[in-house]
Amino acid sequence: MNKVAALGVIVILGIFIQMALHDSNPGKGAFPEKSSSLVADSYLTKSVSQKAPAEISPGDTKLENGAANVVTSVVVDYRGFDTLGEVTILFAVAAGIGLFLKKRPHFKPRQPGTILKTLVPLAVFFIFITGSYVFLHGHLTPGGGFPGGAMMAAGVVLLALSIRKSMRSVFFKILESLAGISFVAIGLIGLYTKGSFLQNFLGAGALGNLYSAWLVMILYFIIGIKVAAELSSVIADFDQMEEGGKQ
Amino acid sequence: MNQVILLIAIPLLVAFSMPLTGKLFPRVSKVIALLTLLFEAIWAGFILFNTKGAVSVVIGGWLPPFGINLVVDHLSGVVAFVVSIVVLFSIFFQLSSGLSKKPNFYMLSLLLVASLMGIIFTGDLFNLFVFFEIAGISAYSLIASGKNSNSSNGALGYLIPASVASVFYLVGIALIYSTLGTLNIAQIASSFSSVKPILATFIAFSLLTLVLLEFEIVPFNSWVPRAYQGAPSSISAIFSSGLALASGYVMLRLGVIVFNGGQGGFIRTGSFELGHALFGIGVITVIAGEIAALAQKDVKKMLAFSSVGQMGMVLVAFSIGTHSSIYGGIFALISHSFAKLLLFLTAGLIIMKTGKSKYTQWTGIARCSPLFGVLMLIGSLGVIGIPLFSGFWGKFAIIGSTVVLGKIGFIATTLILAASVVEGFYFFRLVHTMFETGEEKVPKVKANFAFWLISSLLVAVIVALGLRPGIIDGRLKKIPGELIGNAESGYVQAVNKQLKGSKK
Amino acid sequence: MMDFILPAIVIGPVLIGLLSFLFPRKMQWILFFLTNIVLLGAVFYIRDRQNLFFLFELSYFPVNKLTMGMAYSQLGWFFLAISTVATLLFSAFSVGFNDKKHATAIAPLWLILVGASNGIFMAHDWLWFFIVWESMSWTSLLIIGHGRNKSFKAGIFYYLLSLAGTFALLMSIWLIFRHTGNFEIGSGILFLAQASVRAPFYALVVLALFTLAFFTKSALFPFHMWPSLAHAEAPDDFSAYLSGIMIKYGIFGLLLVVIPVFAASPLHAFKAVSGVPLPLYFTGWISAVTAAWGTIMAIFSSDMKKLMAWSTVANVGYIGAALSTGTSLGYAAALFHTANHMFFKGAIFASLAAVKYRTGEREMHKLGGLAYVMPVTFITFLLGIIAAAGIPPLSGFASKWMIFQALFERKLVFQSTMIFFASTGAFLYLFRALHTVFLGQLPRRFAKVKEVGPFMSFSLIGLMVLMLIPGTAPGTLLKPINSVLGSMGFEQVKTGWFFVQGSTTAIDGGITTFAFVLAVAVVFLLFVLGGKKKKVEMLDNYTSGETPEDWNLTEERYHYGNKFYQPIEVLFKWVPLGAVEEKYRQFGNSLVRLGNLIHDFFQGHSAWGWQLVAGIALLIGLGVM
């Protein structure tokens, strides 16, 4: 029955999309030939609030946005408010898990093997390095706070598996909290110094430099920490549930 | 007006800080959460008080449509104020009721209020989606935090359809972006009529699936009864009075401004009579909701279905899209928020103190503690729309705008009013059962000061709005004019002013 | 003349009612009584102040300038006056009735109800009318329910019908507003009268909606069953108010809107049957059927309150039939009978309440012989049923006579037959009530029953006077009625203090009273001079000395009042008398079943997919339609 319903949804959707995309009536279709109307063009040429520069090359300092990575410039700067929302979603998930996880008996976990014990510290070292690289270079290269943070959290999982001591979530909670506070605080600083929430009050810097696009960089750093801490604290919550079960 | 962002930023800030304060001073953190909600209410009131017309506020210094903007007008101001009060009262009730909840509960409530504020103020379609997601995720966890057997069931029943509907919504956003190249609501509104008719209809359906689901419209609302029953009463109250209100607001905004281009009259997308469809589905919702409520014994489920019915009536009003119907719809929404809040909190208290959740078990409760009976009575009168109570003026305007629509309107009005008769029946049945003299002795129900404070304030609001609709009429009557304009609505104008300023 | 006395007679009782929630119960009743005294003064103070009004503005967007309020009208004043007089007497009764044993907590609500009632009679516009009308409905529901499950079931039935009626009212108000742009009653009537020519269907729909509202309130067919439930289950002292005053709101409404519209619309607007516009003629049939139906049901009732409730239904049927003649004689008859019924039915219910107060019984075959121990109550009841049966010289005679005259004038055969049948039937049930409750033998357990206290006796005597005066001197009521008719633009009835001119003949109240007194004196003389009587216990007579307990039978089985009219019941077996109630009940049950179905639709996790599909399909379907 359920599968029929699902099929029904898909068929309706399919028919609709077919009709919608191949509509011969006058008016704008889904994929207009000229894409210049998209706001993305302005993001690409960094011409949202000023005239589009004739050419954008590394080292340019007078750009409205200093991030070399265009995706990041959109995600964290132009539409930074959305990102605050995304971070909040993750936070809400973590908080929700903490709210309704109830302690219950659980099977005793297996002790980690020797290979795991020996190799994990090494692997975690590299994972942390890579992770922090990814979120620190978010404004330059593909990547950013979310994948970087997830990598770091993966390292934490590995550590937890290999050490097999009960993880304390307090540390992660505090880290998470501090990161979250600083995100909003940066937004508020923007509001009170420049007049608009999350506005860049630090300048654009030179395109392509590591120390450029300050807002993007700092926010991605914060996001990275926050994501890492949140995921870790979720894991710690699960872990503590097992611990509780042992008693 | 720049400061409107604080309505979203401050609860987020406090919520983010709560893992820290919650670990260090668990008790204080709850109080801080409550103070934040108080701040929300005051600030929303301040914003509403200072609203003179539609104003667009940019975020991140980027002008729309490139950056995200918030729009403050009378509609969003009023709705935000009501929502903030609803959440404040519910959480105050929860905090003072003595049922201890983890700090995470209050944290999630803060996230919920922040997301509701975001939903209300944002001027960007994708940002709206993000806030819907936050609201949804906080809501799932909050439902699951209930103590009864239906809690996790209810949360799951909400999670799955809402997630699927979110995907629909996302598809809609993607199509809009690929067609019009912008996500800004105002800009979409001014160029939506140029979209090919079938595509426009498809987009409307995709977006509305999520909105109607949150707006508790039959048959999208499979989550409603279980979620309401499973959630703690304070959260059920927020759902019925806050989330539904905010979703209704989105429905109005998308329907009238975006799909219909702010023209007024029945909503049309291309050649498709979306307004007629919504009108019909609204009538169906009214009937289904009220009849389903009639068959319920569980009080919270009964109230949940009654909310469904009320939302159907509001949808009917919004779909007509005339000045008076929009006014009536908003009035009905607001009054429903206050009255339902009172009902849910009182019912929640009684259920908590007596452990009886079915109305048939409530025999004689009001004989020992008559004030509870009076509270339920006033709440019921407010919801049914009896004159001298707040619900009347909304219903009055709605009936006035449906009955003049010719034959179909006459039939629809008859059906809605017949459903209202059913509504009157089950509400009076509930109230009267409380006043009956039962055989067994009923223990006296006691409430604390906080409850009396909240309930007396709500009673005052319900009665005051009923006696003098003029108290909020001054603000409300500007709303239809801001939504519906001759050329373009006030909302679109406010954003377009900025757009023109951004032309280099 | 803008004056605050009009709002005061509405808001005053409401405020006192709200305030009196704080007082102990005894205090509440005394406050209720005192308020009614003041109200009586106020009502006679405003008499004939034609241009008295109180209007205020509300800020309410959908209507540009929302003015609402009250204004003096002769029709409203007439209703206001008779209802205030009756209420005062009922309240005196209640003060005595609500002692420690019988006290109910309804006084504050009753006060609110009185305020709302005054508001209805003095309404200037539809909005105000609707507001007070609806407030009256739900407060009366709470009074009828008064905390007992069985009464609530009766009350909610009444309330549902009345809610349906008020919502019909709401629709019609807007349908008028759409064209007139205001809520004033006067302009609404004018509009409807014009619309009856231009858009007769539209006018008929609006009128039908109004009529629905008023029919539900006045219990005309097919809503005739609620009084038998609600009047019977309501608190005993409140039944008098319910049956005397509240049932007349519908009559007032019909006189306020429907009648003036037919009077103002041109002759050719509606098809006419024997000179009566067809819709009105149809109303006449309904009223006639109601009268007959109520009578038959009253004959079958063994519960004395139910019996009187059915009798009320029958009487409303008479009034409706008189109204639907469309002649000024008919209107005068209707108004006259309204007033008379208010007093005699009030008296009957009050005396029944007195019986129940002393004996605690409602079933007639458990009573008997109370005339020996409760003489005042007995005489009140006696006069009440004489009036109700329409025997001269009491008030009911004159008004019933006028109703017949009005029906004859238009040559309405069916209505006349039905009303004639009903008023003959009235003898049957009224006599039964008198005989089984007050005459016959006093059961031993009631030997020590005493007459009711001074407050109640005062009220009963007052009601007696009010029944006697209009019977002897119909002019006392007909003169004010004439001024009502005059103010509405109708021809006036020819009447003096004692004399009334009908369509075929005239009557004189003085002569009939004189004849009656003479006849009573003669009979009394014969009674005094008559032979000696020997008392035999009723049971000894029936059972030939056997004890019925041996066969597990109770005494009541042998009471002559038990199944009094069984032969008539057999006669009417083929008439589906309970059919309408049964239909309503079935409808309610199927609604609940449907509700469960809808609820099941929400159950189960697998349903949501279907629902999304169904939702989108519905949207498409409805949009294409």
What does this protein look like?
The complex is a heterotrimer of chains A (247), B (504) and C (625). Chain A is 63% helix and 0% strand. The model of chain A has no long low-confidence stretch (mean pLDDT 81). Chain A has one domain (66-246). In chain A, helix 7 packs antiparallel against helix 8 (214-246). Chain A has helices at 2-21, 40-44, 70-78, 80-100, 114-136, 145-163, 170-194, 214-246. Chain A has 247 residues and is mainly α. In chain B, helix 11 packs antiparallel against helix 12, helix 12 runs antiparallel to helix 17 (407-435) and helix 15 (370-384) runs antiparallel to helix 17 (407-435). The two termini of chain B are 25 Å apart. Chain B is globular, with a radius of gyration of 22 Å. Chain B has 21 helices and two strands. Chain B is 74% helix and 2% strand. The model of chain B has no long low-confidence stretch (mean pLDDT 87). By secondary structure, chain B is an all-alpha fold. Among the domains of chain C are: 1-217, no CATH class; 579-624. Helices cover 69% and strands 4% of the residues of chain C. Chain C has 24 helices and six strands. In chain C, helix 6 (149-180) runs antiparallel to helix 8 (200-218). In chain C, 57% of the residues are buried. At the A-B interface, helix 1, helix 2, helix 4 and helix 7 of A face helix 1, strand 1, helix 4, helix 5 and helix 6 of B.
Summarize the structure.
The complex is a heterotrimer of chains A (247), B (504) and C (625). Chain A has 247 residues and is mostly helical.
- Continuous helix count of chain C: 24
Give the number of domains of chain B. Answer: 1
Subunit organisation of the chains = heterotrimer
Largest interface: B-C, 82 and 60 residues
Proportion of helical residues of chain C: 55-70%
* C-alpha end-to-end distance of chain B: 25 Å
Topology, please?
The complex is a heterotrimer of chains A (247), B (504) and C (625).
Chain A: H1 2-21, H2 40-44, H3 70-78, H4 80-100, H5 114-136, H6 145-163, H7 170-194, H8 214-246
Helix pairs in contact in A: 3-4, 3-8, 4-8, 5-6, 5-8, 6-8, 7-8
Chain B: H1 6-24, H2 26-50, E1 55-59, E2 68-72, H3 74-96, H4 103-121, H5 125-144, H6 151-180, H7 185-191, H8 197-214, H9 224-230, H10 233-259, H11 274-294, H12 299-320, H13 323-354, H14 365-368, H15 370-384, H16 391-402, H17 407-435, H18 449-467, H19 470-476, H20 478-483, H21 490-502
Antiparallel strand pairs in B: 1-2
Helix pairs in contact in B: 1-2, 1-4, 2-3, 2-4, 3-4, 3-10, 3-13, 4-5, 4-10, 5-6, 5-10, 6-8, 6-9, 7-10, 7-21, 8-10, 9-10, 9-12, 10-12, 10-13, 11-12, 11-17, 12-13, 12-16, 12-17, 13-15, 13-16, 13-18, 15-17, 15-18
Chain C: H1 5-20, H2 25-45, E1 53-58, E2 66-71, H3 74-97, H4 107-121, H5 126-145, H6 149-180, H7 185-198, H8 200-218, H9 226-233, H10 236-244, H11 249-264, E3 272-273, E4 276-277, H12 278-300, H13 304-323, H14 328-359, H15 375-389, H16 395-410, H17 413-437, H18 454-472, H19 475-487, E5 499-501, E6 506-508, H20 509-529, H21 538-543, H22 566-571, H23 579-601, H24 607-624
Antiparallel strand pairs in C: 1-2, 3-4, 5-6
Helix pairs in contact in C: 1-2, 1-4, 2-3, 2-4, 3-4, 3-10, 3-14, 3-18, 4-5, 5-6, 6-7, 6-8, 6-9, 7-8, 7-11, 8-11, 9-10, 9-13, 10-14, 11-13, 12-13, 12-17, 13-14, 13-16, 13-17, 14-15, 14-16, 14-18, 14-19, 15-17, 15-18, 16-18
